[in-house]
Design goal:
- The strands form two sheets. Strands 1-8-3-6 form a four-stranded antiparallel sheet, with no helix packed on it. Strands 2-7-4-5 form a four-stranded antiparallel sheet, with no helix packed on it.
- By secondary structure, the protein is an all-beta fold.
- The N and C termini lie far apart (61 Å).
- It is 0% helix and 45% strand.
- The protein has no helices and eight strands.
- It has a single domain, classed as Jelly Rolls (Sandwich), CATH 2.60.120.
- A hairpin with a 5-residue loop joins strand 4 and strand 5.
- Its main location: nucleus.
- One of its GO terms (molecular function) is histone binding.
- It is found in: Nucleus, Nucleolus.
């Protein structure tokens, strides 16, 4: 989970990053973005800032919340790769973000190839025959 990730007028951004020397794969999934107690009836735009496949920084708005019409948005586990920054691009919040972080450890074990299997051991399938009328 993203404990304590709340964007406000004083804390406009939150960066989630992992240790660069960590040899694991990390996935961050954003589940819900919602206005918290004390929010004003104004547009609150939340952006996600990350890097694309060419390692260029990009900012994408993911939520536009307003207390009177849309105080909560479910993002259905929108998956991101750290490092990623969440920024309150407009509004004063408070906006609460929740989600989960998964760590997948890489195994150093190599795949062993079984040399005992040969092409002759594979079962051959009969050819497909046309249907009878």
């Amino acid at each position: 989970l993203l404990p304590g990730c709340e964007l406000t007028a004083r804390t406009k951004s939150y960066t989630f990053q992992v240790d660069e020397e960590d040899d694991s794969d990390h996935i961050l999934a954003l589940s819900v973005v919602c206005l918290s107690d004390g929010a004003k009836d104004e547009c609150n735009v939340v952006e996600v800032i990350g890097r694309n496949h060419e390692n260029q920084e990009i900012a994408v708005p993911v939520a536009n919340l307003k207390l009177s019409c849309q105080p909560l948005l479910s993002l259905d586990n929108f998956k991101l790769q750290p490092p990623v920054t969440f920024r309150l691009a407009a509004g004063s919040g408070p906006v609460h973000l929740s989600g989960w972080h998964r760590i997948m450890h890489r195994e150093d074990a190599s795949f062993e190839v079984d040399d005992d299997l040969s092409d002759e051991d594979e079962e051959e399938l009969p050819p497909i025959m046309p249907a009878k009328k």
